[in-house]
Amino acid sequence: MDLLIALLPALIMIILVIVTRRVVLSLAVGSLLGAMIFTWQEAGAFAPLDTLRYLWDAFYGIMTDFQWYMPILGFVVLIGGLTSVIAVIGGIRAFADWSVQRVKSPVAAKLLTWVLGLLIFIDDYFNALVIGEVSKPITDRYKISRAKLAYVIDSTSAPVVILMPISTWGAYIIGILGSEFDSAGYTETSAFGGLLGAVPYQFYPLTAIAMVLLTILYGINMGPMKTFESKASNDQDISVMASDDKVDVDEDAAEKANHFALITPVIALVFFTILFMFAAAEFSLGAVLDQDITQPLFFAGVIAFVIALVFAFITKAKADMVVRAGLKGMGEMIKSAVVILVLAWIVSGAISDLEVGTMIGEYVEAWNMSAAVMPLIMFFIAGGVAFSTGTSWGAFALLLPIAVPVAMASDPAMMSAIIASVLGGAVFGDHASPVSDTTVLSSTGARSSVHAHFVSQLPYALSTAAFAGAGYGVYALSESLLLSYAIIIVLLVGFVYFRKGLNKQTD
User: Which among 121, 85, 116 has a CA at the least distance from the CA of 99?
Assistant: First the structure.
């Protein structure tokens, strides 16, 4: 199959997201088109029944997967109910009042979110949803748009987690590298050492984290983000998730509620997620990161939700208001985040079945290029694969088995740089993609619409990728890590200077 045809579902879907601003419609069209092309390829002709069967099988597979998909969906639904229950008893209001006394400015509110993103690095899903719940009351109080909150969350989730060998991502990548090192006969270091050695060359994640800090410190808003921030400052935040309806507060209960009504369920969520992961690993520190985080997240979510109900009982909140709020919060999550996630998984599976990544990999292997240029090439290829498929993990699985043999065949000394370019490129593609589950979950955590998050984050992600690409370009010419960092720093400083000047002209 021609690569362009295989990419067609992703391309049309992304265009529709930008033009129509209707994410569900765009994902549905992408899913249908992907299924049609795949079944046409298999049958040799247009096969409507096969297309419908393919879509049903994909949907059924998600709904019956209680190891991965369903726990994620269940956790997202629980977060909706948990937030609404805490809101109805006045917990969110109390936390906002308490935190604003300590977080004295909008910049400090965003910095708090950034710092939490650096500290909570065990998993990107966990990061996005937990930090969103903690930060949202504070950023709302300082009239920071949900789009900006989603950007800060998203840029300190995967970009941070990918740098940490002690994370769920680290365990996954180490597993791939171990197999590939054995197959290629690479004995210079272990898989753990290979991932650790790649960290200094991961220009995109490092630059993305720095970019967020600079935008916070210097108030840099560009593209749609400027509109969202301007509207939010006037109490008209148009980036808010459509289902994020205000919950009526039980004023009698609110008089008894305090900030612990929000803090305690969140702490319980963190504690029990980690505890269940250790339990699944039979309390072996070495095995804990090999565990999927999805089921621990779900069961910890159940406990956190029960704790929220206990606070509702303690504050003597009206039972009917609590029940209505909890069901409403869950229902709104099903109508928004759950539908989007399911469609994103279906379209991602269709694109995977069309073997987009494999075809791109074959093109790479056919190119006869200098080893020094390969990090630059692999960075943008990994970005393209992750952007079109919506999965960085899929890009890792597809491209690391290509990257390791390429490095061995060309120059083993380039192994760390080539591995890092695949990892960083995949994070870029995942970061920029409207169909990425981390994009959806960062939006969910911030209660921003997916479209608002996608269009407002894209200029930052593309700028960051350009700076990281320049770093790899300098490395290709000089093979000097120091010079690569120097050009990235110069570009970041120039970016800040230029954007500050532009903002003054347009204010």
Answer: 116
What confidence tens digit (pLDDT) does each residue in 52-96 have?
999 999 999 999 989 878 887 888 788 888 878 988 898 877 877
Closest CA to 162 of 188, 133, 127: 127
> Which has the higher per-residue pLDDT, 161 or 114?
114
- What is the tens place of the pLDDT at every residue in 211-265? 999 999 998 998 899 999 999 988 888 998 876 555 677 787 878 888 888 889 8
Helical packing angle, 106-119 and 124-141, nearest 10°: 170
Identify the bridge partners of residue 240 per DSSP, sorted by sequence position: 448
CA distances 446 to 139, 181, 240, 356, 461, Å, are 10, 40, 8, 32, 18
Looking up tokens 């171990």, which residue turns up? 178
Model pTM above 0.85: no
Alpha-carbon gap, residue 115 to 277, rounded angstroms: 24
Q: What is the pLDDT of residues 140-192, one digit of tens each?
A: 889 999 999 999 999 998 899 899 876 667 767 876 787 778 777 888 888 77
Q: Would you call 240 helix, strand, or coil by DSSP?
A: strand
Angle made by CA atoms 154, 110, 325, in degrees to the nearest 5: 75
As a whole number of angstroms, the distance between CA 368 and CA 382 comes to 18
Please report, for the chain, the start and end positions of each structural domain, with discontinuous segments joined by +: 106-125+143-240+355-507
Token pair for residue 91?
Answer: 């917990």
